[in-house]
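Issue 218. Parser rejects a valid record. Input:
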Amino acid sequence: MVRVRKGHDAGLWCVVVGTDPESGRVLLVDGSLHPVDRPKRKNPKHLQVTRTVLEDVAARLASGKSLDNGWLARRIAALRDRGDAS
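Output the parser choked on:
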C-alpha cells in the first residue's frame, strides 16, 4: 500500500497494481475513485511507501484473477481506519 503525498489525490491510500515501463509511473487503484479497470498513473516520487503488503491482493494479481472494486475499497478502508497502513 502507498499513500499519495502530492497532487489532486493527496492523502489517498491506494494499492500498487503495476508499473508503466514507458513512463516509469506506477499504477494505483483504490476501488472507488480509481477502479481496477482504470488505474491512476502516478510518479513514484509523489508516493509515501508503507510497510503494509496486502498478501491476498498480491496473490490475486500473481494468479491472474481479477480484483473486485468493492472488496478492495473495503479492505483499504479497514486497514486505514485501524491504523495498520503505516
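Fixed in the parser; the record now loads. The first helix runs from residue 55 to 63.
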